[in-house]
Design brief:
The protein is mostly helical and 150 residues long. Helices cover 65% and strands 0% of the residues. α1 crosses α4. It starts with 16 loop residues before the first helix and ends in a 15-residue tail after the last helix.
């Protein structure tokens, strides 16, 4: 492991308060019991409609509650997604660096523009097609659109 990162990557590393909160909320909201609790709240709310005469306040309670929860969850989900993506990218970069013959210029692809990514994807598609053409007939599989010999 690179010595410059030992201070970051260790067991006692304490994430920021927001990161810890986001991780806890993500774990809690991702459990089946939380889903069923939410369904129960909706059922209780719907069942209470006749008691409150389906009035505007009754509707406002659920609309406001769900809007606030959704608004806050967007940030929690985005934070979790950003962390997961960054961690996965670092892991992939480590594999590329360690793999002999790997093209290290591919390490920061996530920083490129869409047009650059499209050009690189086209290159890989062309390589894949070339490899398929090379191996045609070797695997015994019929060409697309051909019927398999019975």
């Amino acid at each position: 492991m690179n010595r410059s990162h030992e201070h970051i990557i260790h067991r006692g590393n304490r994430a920021s308060l927001f990161t810890r909160l986001a991780q806890s909320v993500s774990r809690w909201t991702g459990k089946p019991v939380t889903f069923f609790a939410a369904v129960t709240i909706i059922v209780v709310w719907a069942a209470s409609g006749p008691i409150f005469g389906f009035n505007d306040t009754w509707q406002l309670v659920i609309n406001t509650s769900t809007t606030i929860i959704t608004f806050l969850m967007v940030f929690i989900i985005q934070n979790s997604q950003n962390r997961d993506t960054a961690a996965m990218q670092i892991k992939l970069d480590e594999l590329i660096v360690r793999l002999e013959g790997a093209r290290e210029e591919l390490l920061d692809l996530e920083e490129l523009d869409e047009s650059d990514l499209a050009r690189i994807r086209d290159d890989f598609c062309a390589r894949a097609n070339k490899a398929r053409e090379k191996s045609d007939g070797k695997n015994g599989l019929p060409e697309p659109g051909e019927a398999a010999a019975s």
